[in-house]
Design goal:
Rossmann fold, about 35% helix, 3-stranded mixed β-sheet
């Protein structure tokens, strides 16, 4: 499937996940990019790609600046203030506000997170695995719970409005715009410790921006009532220990790994459903990491 000739609303457009998706879609579609736009100058990049920027305040349910109707909603916005009321209003109330407003859309895509899974060592998580408070130890006490609550709201609204919906649980996004591995590189440059979990290795499945963009059309196409829920990650399992070692190889910077309670346990995914409904990732993690460094900090490359 390709998306063309459609009207698309992308929320949270300034994020490094949503931005390349919106820019890609704008080549053949009418795209509205929603954000709080606290920095007016930030709009210029998106408008240069033909995207119409609109303001949305999901915490306060203010969507008055958004278009009246669209074909597709791609909801990437997330509120991480770490204030319970604010984050529940923004992540739960906000998505309900959008689904009510666009209940006649052809499909609604909700970007969730694998942070909704209850930590369980190196168990592979299926879409029906137990949910739990994954991120409290990682300085994000409201994140997992508000994202679980948001999923519940999306599931309800899909049925309530008969709105075809996909909930995609994203693992570790990264690319030429950055991501968690790039934060690790910045920490390495600053000589800071990088926390890893005692249940080593700390394994995840990074998904490159190219694969995020490439899989969006199919993620829209598989939207259904009740909502389709699918894990969304890279085919390759890679540990923090392994990718920081590779970043050291690329840059010569040492990685100071320290076992800490303030770290994330592994989130390893079973991707059978993704492979069946959406497809496979294509960017090898080492190629993607090198490209990330080349794009953002080429001065650090040693060879």
């Amino acid at each position: 499937m390709s998306v063309s000739g459609a009207t698309v609303l992308v929320t949270g457009i300034t994020s490094e996940v949503a931005k390349p998706v919106a820019i890609s879609l704008a080549k053949e579609n009418t795209v509205y990019g929603a954000a709080r736009w606290r920095d007016a100058a930030a709009r210029e990049l998106f408008e240069s790609h033909g995207i119409t920027t609109v303001r949305a305040d999901l915490v306060n349910a203010d969507v008055s600046d958004l278009p009246q109707s669209v074909d597709y909603v791609l909801h990437f916005a997330v509120v991480k203030s770490q204030k319970w009321g604010v984050d529940l209003d923004g992540n739960v109330g906000g998505v309900l506000t959008l689904m009510e407003r666009y209940h006649q859309a052809k499909a609604f895509f909700h970007c969730s997170t694998t942070a909704v899974y209850q930590p369980d060592g190196h168990t592979e998580f299926h879409e029906d695995s137990p949910l739990g408070d994954n991120h409290r130890a990682y300085f994000l006490p409201t994140y997992s719970i508000s994202k679980i609550a948001a999923e519940s709201a999306v599931r309800y609204a899909a049925r309530r409005y008969d709105l075809p919906t996909t909930i995609a649980r994203l693992n570790v996004p990264y690319g030429d715009g950055g991501g968690w591995p790039f934060i690790h590189l910045a920490m390495m440059e600053a000589g800071q410790d990088i926390a890893i979990h005692a249940d080593a290795p700390s394994v995840f499945q990074p998904l490159h921006t190219d694969d995020i963009v490439a899989t969006i059309p199919r993620l829209i196409e598989i939207a259904s009532v009740p909502a389709t829920i699918v894990n969304w990650g890279g085919d390759e399992k890679v540990s923090v220990e392994e990718w920081t070692a590779y970043l050291s190889e690329l840059t010569g910077l040492p990685a100071n790994l320290v076992v800490s309670e303030n770290s994330l346990q592994s989130v390893e995914l079973n991707l059978d459903k993704m492979h069946e409904l959406v497809g496979h990732s294509t960017v090898h993690w080492k190629d993607g990491f090198r490209r990330m460094v080349e794009a953002l900090r080429p001065d650090l490359l040693t060879g």
